Amino acid sequence: MLRILDARTGEPVPATPARRGLTRIEAHVPGPGLTSLRVLLTADLLARALELNGLQAWPTAPGQAPDLRAAADALAVRPFEEAHGPGFAETGVVRVTAGEAEWAAEGEGPVMAVAPVVWTGDAEPPLSDPVLRADPTALRLALLSVPHGEAVTLDEATLKRAAERLAGWRRDVAGWAREPSRPVPEAVRARLTDAWENDLDMPDVLAALAAAAADPAIADGARFETFAYADRLLALELARDLGTAG
Asked: Of all helices (H) and strands (E), which one includes residue 58?
């Protein structure tokens, strides 16, 4: 069962109160900027994780600015509806916010508090900045590499390291795809599931992938299926370079 840390109580709670029905994920953003982008990314991850568990999620985000929505699209954050109020057959709601906003104490359902993104340098670049747009998946990976409840410090060097890590994984995945397919090892699947069901622990998900890539006991075909399976949540285009391996 997916459990998240409720910012109002400091206690872990189920992300959805029922195994069936619709869970509305309500993302509230403070305005344009990287922190708001991280809020939308966290809400998107929550929706993906619920769906991987066979549940229905309805992501909503009232008042999205056009440049924020465009940046979210570039980061493979799926569209959010501009919905207000409950939906048909809704069985629960989770609110995702930047920090502990006043509205978070209102209404029903748990609250996920997302820590800020800090860009080092003179000023935070706008979401349309070429540095951020050069490889959006590298920015996504950099944000995923830190627990959503901890502040992220970003700069050009951080994005470069993330891009290099992605390039290495994509190269490996393209190579593994040339071998016969094998099922995802159950122990690896369990570790991945345990990680994202523990308050969306994305760093642990990434660590599980790194361990699978380095484990000599895992066949290359199983490594490929493992990375493809995890990418349903991560959305890092890990199989983008298929067909390019020599």
From this structure: strand 56-60
pLDDT one-digit tens code per residue, 170-228: 999 999 999 999 999 999 999 999 999 999 999 999 999 999 999 999 999 999 999 99
DSSP β-bridge partners for residue 97: 28, 113
Q: Which two tokens stand for residue 143?
A: 């944000």
Among 16, 91, 82, 79, which Cα is nearest to 52's? 16
Which bin fits 185, alpha (ψ -120 to 50), beta or left (φ > 0)?
Answer: beta
CATH class of 164-234: mainly alpha
Return d(Cα 214, Cα 233) in angstroms, integer. Answer: 21
Q: Which residue has the tokens 């109160």?
A: 17
Distance, in Å, from the CA atom of 60 to the CA atom of 82, rounded to the nearest integer, reads 6
Cα gap 221→87, rounded to integer Å:
42
- What residue ranges in 117-157 does DSSP mark as E strands? 117-119, 152-154
Distance between CA 82 and CA 96 in Å, rounded? Answer: 15
The sign of the CA dihedral 144, 148, 150, 153 is positive
Number of H helices and number of E strands within the chain?
A: 8, 8
Report which residue type is found at 189: R
Break the chain into its structural domains and give their ranges. Answer: 3-155, 164-234
